[in-house]
Specification:
The chain is α/β, with parallel strands linked by helices. The protein has 16 helices and 18 strands. Strand 8 (220-226), helix 9 and strand 9 (245-249) form a beta-alpha-beta unit.
């Protein structure tokens, strides 16, 4: 089929059985479909098929693979509206955000289709006249990915596109909360000409079983994971037995700093975009707001006014700007952090209202200190805690005082400060006077316990390539 219809896809996946996983709509709580729960034997068989498919796929030229990937890209663009509706129905984010993610996800397919043709080796000057030294880049082989529920399409394409462009095959375990998007995007990949065994979706009620298999199966050469630092530690330990290559994009605790010379209106706009996108359920969203004491009150007032304009509701409604939290556990964690903050001395300026279901209105807290739970934990919800500061040096120490180092943000007009602070912040990515920093052309990843490796940019392709050195003697 040329078009993927969201109703048809969900109908096909809706046949309930003994070995199925139910999917619900977080806005309504109603079941919308089912996916298969595979056995360990099923998954082992898929891994064996993936190995055969990878050999055949790697024999294609980079241009042949690129042409197929570009067809996949075009199918994603052609089906963007249906893909966005599927995502909103199972994930909850506003329809406009879902469509934005579809286009963002497609951009990785387009980028790596072209970048795969530039996996250059090199000729190295030899120390001896009778030898030639060259290097080649070759696919690592069969790869696996475990992707999260908060970006159910983009986190797949960001991993699968470079793997496929490099000549690898990939098995993908999507989050059980949002698998319909994964099946939809894979369906389009197969329509484009990517062999089914080269891009395979696996699912099970026993997610830990899949994790173990991906980490320990001798056929799988590389694991890419996006998720919590806690789970990342477990996967890295399990991969260590076979010295498997890994890419880990893990938790964050992003500081958002507003200096006294900042454009306050621009900072508020950036704060809204960074904090409340996807209801605050992103790994790079602002987690701790540090605002200089001289502009604190002005920023808080304008931030509260902007937050009051946000519409909370079902993401399928075009007027919604903040959707539901993904599940009841996420909602209860958000309410817990609010309650603990107030007990610890914070002041609730606005929001924080339980709207029933999985809805919580965006909350603004002041009088927050760095010792409070809301400043120590990754919030993953619509809470904005504000911390006053006065001294830049102490601020940097406080901002860096975390095991995480994924993203940081700050607003300033002072060019000297911009370079000084950008270099001092211990994070893999820094947004300066900008609240949204993700793009396919830049490397995405963190330092410290926020992960290893990079996704996107040309570096994302190298994650799926081995370098082979060839020494030609007797020349």
């Amino acid at each position: 089929m040329d078009k993927i219809n969201n109703r048809e896809l969900i109908r096909v996946l809706c046949e309930q059985g003994n070995d199925t996983i139910s999917i619900d709509n977080p806005a309504t709580g109603k079941t919308i479909g089912y996916i298969p729960s595979m056995s360990e034997e099923d998954i082992n068989a898929l891994i064996d098929k993936s190995a055969i498919a990878q050999q055949q796929w790697s024999e294609k030229t980079a241009k042949e693979r690129a042409d197929i990937l570009l067809r996949w890209y075009q199918l994603i663009i052609d089906n963007a509206d249906d893909l966005a509706r599927i995502m909103t129905i199972e994930q909850g984010k506003p329809l406009s955000e879902s469509r934005g993610e579809v286009l963002y996800g497609a951009s990785f397919v387009q980028w790596f289709a072209e970048e795969g043709k530039r996996a250059y080796g090199e000729v190295i000057p030899s120390p001896r006249n009778d030898r030639k030294i060259i290097t080649l880049k070759q696919p690592v082989g069969v790869t696996a990915a475990i992707t999260p529920w908060n970006f159910p399409i983009a986190m797949i394409t960001r991993k699968a596109a470079p793997a496929l462009a490099a000549g690898c095959s990939m098995l993908i375990k999507p989050a059980n909360q949002t698998p319909l998007s994964a099946y939809a995007i894979a369906t389009l990949a197969h329509q484009a000409g990517i062999p089914e065994d080269c891009l395979t979706i696996v699912s099970s009620t026993r997610s830990s079983v899949i994790g173990k298999l991906f980490c320990q199966h001798p056929t799988i050469s590389k694991l890419s994971f996006t998720g919590s630092t806690q789970v990342g530690r477990i996967l890295m330990r399990d991969c260590a037995e076979s010295i498997k290559r890994t890419s880990m994009e893990l938790g964050g605790n992003a500081p958002f700093i507003v200096f006294d010379d900042a454009d306050i209106d621009a900072a508020v706009e950036g704060a809204i975009a960074s904090k409340f996108r996807n209801g605050g359920q992103t790994c790079v969203c602002a987690n701790r707001f540090y605002v200089h004491q001289d502009i604190h009150d002005s920023f808080v007032e304008k931030f509260a006014q902007a937050m009051a304009q946000l519409t909370v509701g079902d993401g399928i409604d075009s007027s919604t700007q903040v959707g539901p939290l993904i599940d009841e556990k996420a909602k209860q964690n958000t309410l817990r952090l609010l309650t603990e903050s107030l007990k610890q001395g914070a002041t609730l300026v606005a929001g924080g209202e339980d709207r029933g279901g999985r809805f919580v209105t965006p909350a603004l807290l002041t009088n927050v200190t760095s010792e409070m739970s809301v400043a120590q934990e990754e919030i993953f919800g619509p809470i904005a805690p504000i911390i006053r500061f006065s001294d830049e040096q102490n601020l940097i120490k406080e901002a860096n005082n975390t095991i995480y180092g994924l993203a940081s943000y700050f607003y300033s007009k002072d060019i000297n400060r911009i370079f000084r602070v950008a270099e001092a912040l211990q994070s893999g990515m820094v947004g300066v006077n900008e609240g949204i920093i993700s793009t396919e052309v830049a490397p995405f990843g963190g330092v410290k316990q926020s992960g290893i490796g990079r996704e996107g940019a040309r570096l994302g392709l190298d994650e799926y390539l081995n370098i082979k050195y060839i020494c030609l003697g007797g020349m």
